[in-house]
Specification:
There is one protein chain. The protein has a single domain, classed as DsrEFH-like (Hypothetical Protein Ychn, Chain: A, 3-Layer(aba) Sandwich). It is α/β, with parallel strands linked by helices. Strand 1, helix 1 and strand 2 form a beta-alpha-beta unit. It has a 5-stranded parallel sheet with strand order 4-3-2-1-5, sandwiched between helices. The longest helix has 16 residues. It is globular, with a radius of gyration of 13 Å. 41% of the residues lie in helices and 20% in strands.
């Protein structure tokens, strides 16, 4: 099966578009592909989103539910270290979302290794 990289840079307030990346990752894993998600820039904030954060917004639970489904399928989630630090993500938040901090050069390495790269 294919090895896929999804590079996500969507802003947290673009919930529906961000959810598409998580849904693509979930679908690829369900089809048996190896998937790595790399969140960079403002997309780092998506790690903080929880369903109750925005009650009353029908789209608020979409990224949260999709993120949980991605984790349930054992998709690797990498967070670009400099943006994570500049947005004050603490280690507990990162661990609770089962992500890992990586340096930006890993994105280039993963893109070179993967047969498919999608950017959202």
């Amino acid at each position: 099966m294919a090895r896929t990289l999804l590079h996500l840079t969507r802003r947290p307030w673009q919930l529906t578009r961000a959810a598409l990346a998580f849904q693509a990752a979930r679908t690829a894993r369900q089809q048996g592909h190896s998937v790595t998600m790399f969140l960079a820039g403002t997309a780092i904030q998506l790690v903080r989103i929880q369903a109750p954060d925005r009650p009353g917004d029908p789209g608020a639970d979409v990224p949260c539910a999709a993120y949980e489904a991605v984790l349930a399928n054992r998709t690797k989630v990498c967070l670009s270290d400099p943006p994570a630090r500049s947005r004050y993500l603490n280690p507990a938040q990162i661990r609770s979302r089962r992500a890992r901090l990586t340096m930006p050069h890993l994105l280039v390495k993963l893109a070179a290794e993967r047969g498919q790269v999608f950017s959202y």
